[in-house]
Design a protein that fits this description.
The chain is 34% helix and 17% strand. The protein is of the alpha/beta class and 451 residues long. The chain has one domain (3-66, 102-450): L-arginine/glycine Amidinotransferase, Chain A (5-stranded Propeller). The strands form five sheets. A three-stranded mixed sheet has the order 2-1-15. It has a three-stranded mixed sheet with strand order 3-4-5. Strands 6-7-8 form a three-stranded mixed sheet, with helices on both faces. A hairpin with an 8-residue loop joins strand 6 and strand 7. Bound molecules: N~2~-(3-carboxypropanoyl)-L-arginine (SUG). N~2~-(3-carboxypropanoyl)-L-arginine binds at residues 17-21, 24, 27, 102, 104, 107, 109-110, 138, 177, 250-251, 253-254, 369-371, 375.
């Protein structure tokens, strides 16, 4: 049976709060705070295990090697001893060191965009790592993302890997965070909805005037759909509302979430408002012979844009538990904001939509950097044969979970303050941890330090 598999990014040992993401309200607010890497990784693992226990296929993507010594060398820091190199970076360019230490690869919704085998031209699953060109710390991710994806999805019979879209100024691609696949079920062909903030090639006079950066270019989404061989009638390109970006909606998954035939969205999510939704409904009906897309619109009078961003109501995971029965996987912040909590109670109770359960998780450490439940996972729709082609160590289950918890407890620090990033022992600890992890997951050597 074809099913959606959630691959969650495991929080890396250098998880910290460096305030690196202009336009991401939580990241800016927590700049300089002391982080708790061990707790962060355990919170993420607990969510993975809970979803596996609900009967959902759940797997894991490994963290990246940080501090990224190769990136610091590319910025001109040299020296045979890595400790000296870190000390020089801390002294001369602390902001570069912070970028090279970010554990941002945990938010794997930004790792790649993919097309399942049911929708691609050659019947394989296609992957394009996101270029993440709009933020320095995130632009360091694509090379390792590509290595990790190739190690996990290694069968050429089933999987095709593309290079990231070239990342010139304005050509940002932020991966699956701006992509939703709508279909009656995982097994059906899907309508792929790509949400973009701007056109990179538009005349400057036509560009939306923004306070915060728009991170996704239409041209990047078009390139991904083209490279994957997605038929035109299965692709829809929808512009984000500029006002949403300026309210802190730096990715579409902060303001809408779709699953199967259901699209939960804020009324202010899209530039063309109800017309955008009407067009999606029409495209969906054309593709699926008159079937209806259930578009659940959350009005601003119930949940303001600001509350949507503070609570991450739309960064929930919407998952199918059984045909026609869906659950929402939400961060604890959704219960702490009155208007959002009340809205969720009404949503669950309303028989007009398929969402009938709410599961709440404490993901506080990631949330403080603007990463909710949906940011932490990459959805990969796979047939049974494709699932069987994966290394068995990547699955979360009763055997792997306790081992991973042990691994975190052995290798991760309790706390990390900004000044700790230059500590050469942190580099050693991280590498030791990742070396042990690749063995646990059965991935072989995937990191530069292992070669
Ligand atoms: O790119 N935060 C990430 C959060 C990504 C959330 N992902 C999705 N919405 N899919 C970002 O803004 C903050 C890092 C720091 O400030 O230390 C950060 O990179």
């Amino acid at each position: 049976m074809t099913r959606e598999v959630n691959f969650d990014g495991l929080v890396g040992p250098t998880h910290n709060y460096a305030g690196l993401s202009h336009g991401n309200v939580a990241s800016l607010t927590h700049r300089g705070a002391v982080s708790r890497p061990r707790e962060a990784a355990l919170q993420g693992l607990a969510k993975m295990k809970a979803l596996a226990d609900l009967g959902l296929p759940q797997a894991i993507l490994p963290p990246h090697e940080r501090p990224d010594i190769a990136a610091l060398r590319a910025f001109g820091f040299s020296g045979r001893r890595e400790a000296d190199l870190l000390a020089a970076a801390a002294k001369q360019a602390p902001a570069l060191l912070a970028a090279a230490c970010s554990a941002s690869a945990m938010w794997v919704a930004n790792a790649a965009t993919l097309t399942p085998s049911s929708d691609s031209a050659d019947g394989r699953v296609h992957f394009t790592p996101a270029n993440l060109a709009s933020k320095l710390h995130r632009s360091l991710e694509p090379a390792q993302t590509a290595r990790s994806l190739r190690a996990i999805f290694h069968s050429e019979k089933h999987f095709a890997h593309h290079p990231p879209v070239p990342g010139a100024q304005g050509f940002g691609d932020e991966g699956a965070a701006n992509h939703t696949r709508l279909a009656p079920s995982a097994a059906h062909r899907g309508l792929h909805v790509y949400v973009y903030g701007h056109r990179a090639l538009a005349h400057p006079a036509e560009a939306p005037r923004l306070r915060f950066p728009s991170r996704q270019a239409l041209e990047a989404s078009e390139a991904v759909a083209r490279a994957h061989g997605l038929p035109a009638r299965q692709a829809a390109f929808v512009q984000q509302a500029p006002a949403a970006i300026d309210a802190g909606v730096f990715h579409n998954d902060v303001i809408s979430v779709g699953n199967d035939d259901c699209l939960l969205h804020h009324e202010k999510a899209f530039a063309r408002g109800p017309r955008a939704i009407a067009e999606l409904k029409a495209a969906y009906a054309r593709l699926h012979r008159g079937r209806e897309l259930v578009a659940v619109r959350v009005p601003a009078r119930r949940v303001s844009l600001a509350d949507a961003v503070r609570s991450y109501l739309f960064n929930t995971q919407l998952v199918t538990l059984a045909p026609g029965r869906m659950a929402l996987v939400a961060p604890a912040e959704c219960r702490e904001i009155k208007a959002v909590s009340a809205y969720l109670d009404d949503l669950i109770a309303d028989p007009a939509n398929p969402i009938s359960e709410l599961h709440v998780f404490n993901l506080r450490e990631s949330m403080r950097n603007g990463g909710g439940p949906a940011c932490l996972r990459l959805r990969v729709t796979l047939s049974a044969e494709e699932r069987a082609a994966l290394p068995p160590g990547v699955w979360i289950n009763d055997q792997s979970y306790p081992r991973l918890v042990e691994w975190v407890k052995k290798h991760y620090r309790e706390t990390l303050a900004p000044r700790d990033l230059a500590d050469p022992r942190l580099l050693e600890e991280s590498r030791r941890a990742l070396d042990a992890l690749t063995k646990l997951l059965g991935l072989g050597n995937i990191y530069p330090f292992q070669s």
